[in-house]
Amino acid sequence: MGARALILGAGPGAVGLAQLLMRAGYAPELCEPDPDAARRLGDLLARAGVDLPLVTGTGDPEAAALAIEAMEEEAGATRQAHLQALLHRCDPAVPVLSTSLSHLPARAIGFRLAAPMQLRPLVEIAAGPIAPADQIGALFALARAMERRPVAAPVGRPSIASRLSARLAGTAEQLLMQGAIPHELDEAMVARGWDLGLFEAQDLIGLAASAAILPQSARPISSRMVAEGRLGKTAGVGWYRYPGGGGAVIDPLIEDLIREEAWFAEVPQRRWSGPEMLAHLLDALRREVSEMLADGTAASLAEVQTVCAAGLGFSGGLEVDPAEG
């Protein structure tokens, strides 16, 4: 039996993290404070044949060798409160992690895995203000033991992956408002070097989590989808439909929803070709890369390309002017 790792949270990200920790030799325990959520997760794990210890409550961090706040489904204030509680209850020698990189307190360490985890091996590691250096080094080794690709992330500002993901999602939503079709954009992205189209990836991650990287005003379509319960593959419908829990199937109703939102916003729509959509996406990403190189978020173009491949699933290259890198 490996060292005990307490994971506070019971969403898809927490379950995926638990399975990766098992690969690295840990004995993970999922803890869910909400009894209804814990019961639903227990049923889901049983149906999927996944054997993971599940506790209703916040568990016993005093007995853990590693404690992780992974409550992606909760509001920021709730997550912060639970993270502070873990820090208070854990021995200072025990690493306390959060799968969010925002507002890291005291000795907490950000440990965010790219999603979907089965496709994207990136792990971003960010140290809180007084996080012990030996713990940070150990977490880089842990990420490699989990067969992940660790990179250092900045503290107090968005990381490379966060900024690229937000720019990509925001530009794609703008294209939809102007008449682009989701499955056609996905097909064009895969043809250009992405491992998966943006919208199918969002369905795998879950619309509630993937949409949250943008302010609500920048995502009228995905906000409406979340409100209507089109939450992605686990709900059976998102940008695509998933009959019987199988693969993605094109859903013509999503095109009606997009047209309605464009009409409400008085945005004219037109037909877009694959090359036109890709040109807009890549130009937007190149602009973001240039800004990150200028403000120091990215140290080099090579660092950006690493994050693109391991975190966004894009190995096609951004072809930014080398002088900017």
From TrEMBL:
Database matches in InterPro entries: 3HC_DH_C (IPR006108), 6-PGluconate_DH-like_C_sf (IPR008927), NAD(P)-bd_dom_sf (IPR036291)
Keyword Acetylation belongs to the record: no
Record keyword Isomerase present: yes
Pfam annotation, one family: 3HCDH
Residue ranges of domain 3-hydroxyacyl-CoA dehydrogenase C-terminal in the record: 160-242
Swiss-Prot/TrEMBL keywords: Isomerase, Lyase, Multifunctional enzyme
Name the UniProt record assigns to this protein: 3-hydroxyacyl-CoA dehydrogenase family protein
Organism annotation: Pseudodonghicola flavimaris
